[in-house]
Amino acid sequence: MVLVASNPIDLVRIMLLMKFDVAALMGYTGRVLQRFFTNSWGYWATLTVLVLWILVPLAISVRRFNRKDF
């Protein structure tokens, strides 16, 4: 799950697959992902990781831009 969370594109792709309930086409991996991503804890964990993927680069860039003297 850590490797999935390290790539936001894969994270969104897996969330869409779970939303459309096509985990059966993915075999054993689909079953594991379905167990994790379909409960409420998995949903909130995924949402939190995606929000962090937005906020961390934004905070870093705001800090760097405020330090620069244009």
Give me the count of strands: 0
Counting DSSP H or I runs of 4 or more residues, the number of helices is: 4
Order of helices and strands: HHHH
Q: Which stretches are low in confidence, meaning pLDDT under 50 for 5 or more residues running?
A: none
Task: Output the radius of gyration.
Answer: 16 Å
Helix content: over 70%
Choose one word for the global shape.
elongated
Oligomer: single chain
Distance between the termini: 42 Å
Largest sheet: none
In percent terms, what proportion of residues is strand?
under 5%
Average residue-wise pLDDT: 85
The total tally of domains equals 1
Give the helix/strand class: mainly alpha
Which labels suit this protein?
70 residues; mainly alpha; 4 helices; elongated
Overview of the structural elements:
This protein is mainly α and 70 residues long. It has one domain (2-67). The protein has four helices and no strands. It has helices at 2-5, 8-19, 28-37, 40-67. Helix 2 packs antiparallel against helix 4. The chain starts with a helix and ends with a helix. 6% of the residues are buried. The model has no long low-confidence stretch (mean pLDDT 85).
